[in-house]
TrEMBL record:
Lineage per the UniProt record: Bacteria, Pseudomonadati, Pseudomonadota, Alphaproteobacteria, Rhodospirillales
Segments traversing the membrane: 9-30, 36-53, 65-82, 94-110
Species this chain originates from: Azospirillum thiophilum
Keywords: Cell membrane, Membrane, Transmembrane, Transmembrane helix
GO cellular component, one term: plasma membrane
Family: Belongs to the UPF0060 family.
Subcellular compartments: Cell membrane
InterPro entries given in the database record: EmrE-like, UPF0060
Keyword Lipid metabolism belongs to the record: no
First-listed, main subcellular location of the protein, grouped into a coarse class: membrane
Topology in membrane: Multi-pass membrane protein
Protein name: Uncharacterized protein
Coiled-coil annotated spans: none
Domain of life from the UniProt record: Bacteria
Length: 113
């Protein structure tokens, strides 16, 4: 079965944003002293993340999760830069590129019949 990768990457990007937002809500409460109320939208965001990931065009959950991992790593470094104001260094960037290459292999690699 032939698959197009772009819709999956967009879906993974949305899932990553939902997951990072949800996790950051808990980080803000536990580590930054924000109100416990921060966790409420965090829970909703994590539920959205889980639902979005089930929409991935994959025959197996493990493969979808593995490919998503590379996208999540790159998105986390973007969050680091854009939201937290800390610019990723060259090692962060190199690591993210390696992970994205791995995700691409998992998503687009030829599969046996």
């Amino acid at each position: 079965m032939e698959r197009t990768v772009w819709p999956t990457l967009v879906l993974y990007g949305a899932a990553a944003l939902a997951e990072i937002t949800g996790c950051f809500a808990f980080w803000a409460w536990a580590r930054l002293g924000r109100s416990l109320w921060w966790t409420m939208p965090g829970v909703a965001s994590l539920c959205l993340f889980a639902w979005l990931l089930t929409r991935a065009d994959a025959d197996f959950a493990g493969r979808a999760y593995a490919a998503y991992g590379g996208v999540y790593i790159a998105a986390s470094l973007l969050w680091l830069w854009l939201v937290e104001g800390a610019r990723p260094d060259r090692w962060d960037t190199a690591g993210a590129l390696v992970c994205l290459a791995g995700a691409a292999l998992i998503l687009a690699g030829p599969r046996g019949s």
